[in-house]
Design goal:
Layout: E1 2-6, E2 13-17, H1 24-27, E3 36-41, H2 43-59, E4 63-68, H3 78-90, E5 98-103, H4 105-117, E6 124-128, H5 131-137, E7 142-147, E8 150-157, E9 162-165, H6 175-192, H7 194-202, H8 204-208, H9 212-232, H10 247-256, H11 263-280, H12 287-298, H13 314-323, E10 334-339, E11 342-346, H14 351-358
Parallel strand pairs: 2-9, 3-4, 3-5, 5-6, 6-9
Antiparallel strand pairs: 1-2, 7-8, 10-11
Bound molecules: nicotinamide-adenine-dinucleotide.
Amino acid sequence: MHVVKVSLGDRDYDIEIGTSLDQIGARLQGLGFSQKIAFITNPTVKKLYGQRVVDSLKAAGFLVLSIEIPDGEQYKTLDWANAIYSALLINSFDRKSALVALGGGVIGDLTGFAAATFMRGVPFVQVPTTLLAMVDSSVGGKTGVNHAMGKNMIGAFYQPKKVLMDLDVLRSLPQEEFLAGMAEVIKYGVIWDASFFEYLDRKREKILALNPDVLSQIIQRSCEIKAEVVSKDEREGGLRAILNFGHTVGHAIETAENYTMRHGEAVAIGMVYASKLAHNTGLCNASVPERVEKLIKSYGLPTSLSALSRKPPVTELMDTMRIDKKAEGGKVRFVLPKKIGEVVVTGEWEEQQLQELIS
Ligand SMILES: NC(=O)c1ccc[n+]([C@@H]2O[C@H](COP(=O)([O-])OP(=O)(O)OC[C@H]3O[C@@H](n4cnc5c(N)ncnc54)[C@H](O)[C@@H]3O)[C@@H](O)[C@H]2O)c1
């Protein structure tokens, strides 16, 4: 088992990579939780792994309340957070009762948000079961739900008490979901670590074959990078914004596709356009967008807007980018690579150059 520490003072926590699902109960002992625990998942994941987690929690002496949320992004809402609050209230949960999220980013974000807001905050634990959740959404404390007018519009920064990962669960994950997670893994190479980027190129076959050692390596390195960035800037006052590489165009694509495209796929395309914009802006040489595009493509991920179900008008994409919550006063700040392993967050880019790229 590998442990990555997220250093946030009194909110420090460990990410444990390689803990068996059967050990979850034991890993939660001694954290000061009361006996009642709420176990939150969706039917897909519950069918595969629910019983093992419930058994391990019970074996550790917890009284388990199971809460099931239907499977899908459309259930990451205030209504379903409210369903969680109701179940907790009916069952007399108190401020020391913990919530355990077993699932992908949808379950993790929703459970984290419910934990942040129920009784002004109760402890929660992430047990991510998708690659995207392991390397991204379960780490760093962004929790939230969607609003009819926008994704992740309601939320809170709220850190889990622990993140526990059993990598064997990735074996049942559909290939497209795994690849979508790889987009975020590739992102870490571009924004922070050139040798990791090269490693992803060298180890592609083993990664795609889910080789346990290599998988553990890439998840660990991704978590280390995210933990380091988040430890320096928990609330996105500055540095943390680099994690949004590929997300500005990516978010506009998700909106244009009405959220039918996977987040990681949209980010993959967004990273290619951001890299091209960086080159056209004179920030990097032509090899950067070429290498980014080549690596993304080699993992079977989309690299251009032609992968969309329809060609969105340039104005539509530009308008969405402007109202993105990452824009400041209407000015979109792009994360652009200077080289592989280093990015800048900047408002210094030409609108016309971006329009040409996406038209
Ligand atoms: N909080 C953050 O910092 C952050 C970062 C990135 C993304 N997100 C959010 O994460 C969400 C996307 O997360 P996701 O990609 O994990 O999607 P998801 O949670 O919808 O999971 C994808 C699918 O895989 C299934 N699944 C999960 N684990 C499985 C397993 N082991 N075997 C088989 N099937 C399994 C799920 O039931 C679902 O159908 C979005 O809502 C996005 O906004 C949050």
